[in-house]
Design a protein that fits this description.
Organism: Candidatus Enterousia avicola
Order of helices and strands: HHHHHHHHH
Keywords: Membrane, Transmembrane, Transmembrane helix
Distance between the termini: 37 Å
Subcellular location: Membrane
Number of domains: 1
Largest sheet: none
InterPro entries: Bax_inhibitor_1-related
Family: Belongs to the BI1 family.
């Protein structure tokens, strides 16, 4: 994707005087501020959906409604389009799209959250804490490590496509993600997006050193926030699924 293409232009993280004076730190703070704002929007959207009759629109007598699938696939399409066009938007437009995607994800997560609330509400808090700790550790690793993680890119992309295909297949054969195989899928999902966090973190750090234009760095910050947001929410989703397998 756009961030990864930029990262190919450099093989070693280099910093200039401006970065050493705090430019890189401010850039990363902007990324995390946008990312956690999006997580907050997702949490609020999910809460409002569950606390109002809106949640009934996501279900039919036989399963999930057409609206759910529209939001699910519409959100996927929006995230891909936003990443492809990231450097064509003004940063403000990118932020708006990020928040729109966060709202859609909040609604899409509602059925999983309702299962957790019905079974054991504390698993939601547990999943969030575990996800936050894993995310922080992997982000720090990606920022600090001197090992080039670019070799992970193709493997992580293939793994993510595999998870999407399994998810699509589960709509046709729900039993596919049941039992042991479903547990393995969740564990693989957690691993893939944990590694994506470290990979994206290193890529964003390197990309900052390549880009000299301030506007491009702001655009990259929004794109980076989207990448890290996707990884965090995906880890949370898979971990919550693991905690509610029964």
């Amino acid at each position: 994707m756009a961030v990864k293409n930029i990262a190919l232009k450099t093989k070693a993280p280099e910093t200039d005087k401006r970065e050493k004076s705090g430019g890189l730190e401010l850039y990363l703070k902007r990324i995390f501020a946008l990312m956690f704002a999006a997580v907050g929007v997702t949490a609020l959207a999910a809460f409002l959906t569950m606390a109002t009759p809106l949640w009934t629109l996501l279900f039919t007598e036989t399963g999930l409604s057409a609206l759910y699938y529209i939001l699910l696939f519409g959100g996927l399409a929006l995230s891909i389009w936003a990443q492809v066009r990231a450097f064509s938007f003004k940063p403000s437009v990118g932020i708006l799209l990020l928040m729109l995607y966060a709202v859609m994800m909040g609604v899409v997560l509602t059925p999983l959250l309702l299962v957790a609330v019905t079974g054991n509400p504390y698993t939601i808090l547990s999943a969030f804490i575990i996800s936050a700790v894993m995310f922080a550790c992997m982000a720090l690793f990606g920022y600090k490590t001197v090992k080039d993680l670019s070799f992970l890119g193709i493997f992580l992309f293939i793994g993510m496509i595999g998870l999407i295909l399994v998810g699509l297949a589960s709509f046709i054969w729900p039993a596919l993600v049941g039992g042991t195989f479903g547990t393995i899928v969740c564990l693989v999902g957690v691993l893939i997006f944990a590694l994506f966090t470290a990979y994206d973190m290193q890529t964003l750090k390197r990309a900052y050193a390549v880009l000299g234009d301030g506007n491009q760095k702001n655009q990259l910050a929004v794109l980076g926030a989207l990448h890290l947001y996707i990884s965090f929410v995906a880890m949370f989703q898979y971990i919550l699924s693991l905690l509610n397998r029964n």
